[in-house]
Amino acid sequence: MKKLFVLIALTLLISASVAQAQDRKFSLYAVGFYNLENLFDTCHDAGHNDYEYLPEGANHWTPMKYEHKLRNMSRVLSEMGTDMLPASIGCAFIGVSEVENAKCLADLCAQPPLAARNMQFCHIEGPDQRGVDCALLYNPKLFTVRDVKLIPYIYILPEDSLRATRGFLTVSGTMAGEHVAVIVNHLPSRFAGSFYREEGGRQIKIVKDSLQREDPDVKIFIMGDMNDDPQDPSMAVKLGARREISEVEPFGLWNPFWNVLASGTGTLQYDGKWNLFDQIILSRNLIDVDKLKDRKKFDFKPSEVDCSTLTYFRHQVFRRDYLFQQEGKYKGNTLRTHAGGQWLDGYSDHLPTVVYLVKEQK
Predict the structure, then answer these.
(1) How far apart are CA 339 and CA 198, in angstroms?
(2) pLDDT above 50: residue 11
(3) What is the value of pTM for the model shown?
(4) CA distances from 46 to 41, 169, 332, 347 (A)
(5) What does the alpha-carbon distance between residue 106 and residue 141 come to, in Å, rounded to a whole number?
(6) In the chain, pLDDT over 90 holds for what percent of residues?
(7) Cα 167 to chain center, whole Å?
(8) How far apart are CA 360 and CA 148, in angstroms?
């Protein structure tokens, strides 16, 4: 009789546990990054070399072309994150690069798909010689800004003393009730040489470390056009973003896009080969390390990881057919705004990236 009682009690306990698991509810969030490829207005900004993007410049950049660019960019930005979230929601925030100024950002956020979400932006005018900056677009219903800083990229060689480039836009805020920080980057170009991007990786790590000293619990997203692949020294060594979750040390970083590139796809092409410069790197406390460190494929249910706090769930290179050339010699390449001296009325030479996060509802 006693054994029967224990068996019945155990059955009831298991049934209650299953029912409780089935009743669990989760909130899903998305964050992204997109290189807008030269979002310039049609007016000259004093002190900047923006002449090719003027009506009389090399690209004959007219108000009509500018309006088309805004429309195209807003389409992509509004659709990012909607592979898993409703079309009316999309990303909580999106880091962007290659935007000229606050006017361009205001015009972009005024486009109907973004205005419908009341998208706002964080931006500080930087010293880049061409005038292009980084910014953060955000949905105020999903992300609340606490603080915005532009930390300069510092050239350390004497011969570079008169040069200037994009800094590190660092935005602190609240998402899903938690302290989150985003560092948006656009590291020096491939023409500058690896040394300058390695310096960029080292300086991003200094920014990351300072954020963690201020609040060890802050959850950090490092995103941007790194002009390097995940395995290059700037990312893998100087910044220390690891390929595998099992390799991530306390307060360290994981780069989920390393294995994406290894699988044969990326975010931009050069000579028919994929690179993956557009990365979103996560601090260790965004990952359930114990449950995920031995996984080779990240196809799991939220109930299989600890989602009591904001936790990594999925990542993707965002792809749509309209982002690619559909015919001709360059079929399959990204559909750019300009190519070969011609206006293509396209989008960007880069594809966006997205990370999805999940948190259990209380």
Answers:
(1) 30
(2) no
(3) 0.93
(4) 13, 22, 38, 27
(5) 18
(6) 86
(7) 16
(8) 28
